[in-house]
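Input record, target 12 of the design panel.
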């Protein structure tokens, strides 16, 4: 997840095909072989045989990840670094690493702004990326003010189009993104916007702006029920949106949860999982009743969560605490029993995001502190 404070906006993609040639080359050719590292399993009751398969090097500060199970490709958002002590601010190393799930080879899609979140609609061959462009509007010595952007990328042709833009300041802008694959609607969590702070912006059917809780971060869609779930890190609750009416129909609070940072849905069981970054646990919600059914202890600073609806196992990326010597790990939750297993990979630091390929039962974890992605062979009964 992400943060900030900021001026003169630079590098905004404002039309289709702006980086088409580069994107086509990157998306159609996987040229760089990936290295793999070892891992270990520490079982504490979850079972299922999940294990670390290897590690793939990606770009600078990977912070979000999404999977296309149809094409067996993995898209990793690399934040890069913001540079420019004088003159224009620029983002070095920002882009998307595309991993071929079958071969482990990679390609790089460069971006002109920092990617904050990524979502995929495999059926329409489209990737959506939320980005931030940096500048110096308020403080000449500080590259911090940004403009929020959202772009779509046709993964078949590489063409890019801007689908959202808003001038922001002082706080994170777009921090979460999800797409309803049944309707094509895109949901953006907006923390700071001149006109729509603490809201979800709908791009698609009607362009609605839906007020939610404070500092919304993660967002997930249940395509079966048409409900959208938003993790509000500032107000310590979950907003439930009815996708048919674009209105909040419930607000769920777990008294044992602090700082929900990410949310995932198991559409098969209609269960929702919220990773609470400040209380080191995961809230389990019954999607039919909106009741909290369990709070499960996990690792330190859980920042990402995803569910495999085919196997009913849930994966939590625990960022750890570098100052305390905790590099982080992954908690595997058995959705049938809520029992857990802890997976560690000695070659990684700060796991912050996770995505599941339910077809191959492979799990991909973005490690922001070590610039790589852990590949896990998923749990099964």
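The sequence produced for target 12 reads:
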């Amino acid at each position: 997840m992400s943060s900030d404070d900021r001026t003169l906006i630079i590098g905004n993609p404002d039309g289709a095909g702006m980086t088409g040639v580069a994107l086509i080359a990157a998306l159609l050719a996987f040229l760089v072989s990936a290295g793999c590292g070892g891992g270990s399993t520490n079982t504490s009751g979850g079972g299922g045989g999940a294990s670390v398969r290897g590690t793939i090097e990606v770009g600078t500060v990977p912070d979000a990840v999404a999977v296309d199970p149809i094409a067996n490709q993995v898209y990793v958002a690399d934040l890069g670094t913001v540079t420019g002590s004088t003159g224009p601010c620029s983002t070095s190393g920002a882009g998307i690493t595309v991993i071929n799930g079958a071969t482990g080879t990679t390609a790089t899609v460069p971006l002109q702004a920092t990617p904050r979140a990524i979502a995929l609609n495999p059926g329409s061959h489209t990737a959506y990326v939320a980005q931030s462009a940096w500048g110096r509007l308020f403080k000449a010595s500080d590259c911090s003010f940004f403009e929020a952007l959202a772009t779509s990328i046709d993964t078949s042709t590489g063409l890019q189009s801007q689908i959202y833009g808003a001038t922001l300041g002082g706080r994170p802008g777009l921090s979460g993104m999800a797409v309803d694959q049944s309707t094509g609607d895109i949901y953006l969590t907006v923390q700071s916007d001149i006109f729509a702070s603490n809201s979800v912006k709908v791009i698609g059917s009607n362009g609605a702006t839906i007020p939610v809780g404070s500092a919304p971060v993660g967002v997930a869609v249940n395509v079966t029920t048409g409900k959208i779930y938003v993790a509000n890190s500032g107000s310590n609750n979950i907003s439930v949106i009815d996708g048919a009416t674009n209105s909040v129909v419930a607000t769920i609070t777990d008294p044992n949860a602090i700082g929900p940072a990410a949310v995932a849905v198991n559409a098969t069981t209609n269960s929702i999982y919220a990773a609470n970054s400040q209380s080191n646990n995961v809230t389990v919600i019954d999607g039919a009743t909106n009741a909290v059914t369990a709070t499960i202890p996990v690792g330190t600073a859980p920042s990402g969560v995803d569910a495999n609806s085919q196997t009913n196992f849930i994966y939590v990326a625990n960022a750890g605490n570098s100052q305390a010597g905790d590099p982080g790990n992954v908690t595997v939750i058995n959705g049938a029993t809520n029992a857990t297993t802890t997976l560690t990979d000695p070659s990684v630091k700060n796991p912050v995001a996770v995505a599941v390929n339910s077809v191959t039962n492979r799990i991909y974890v973005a490690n922001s502190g070590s610039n790589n992605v852990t590949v896990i062979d998923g749990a099964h009964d």
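Residues 44 and 276 are 20 Å apart (CA to CA).
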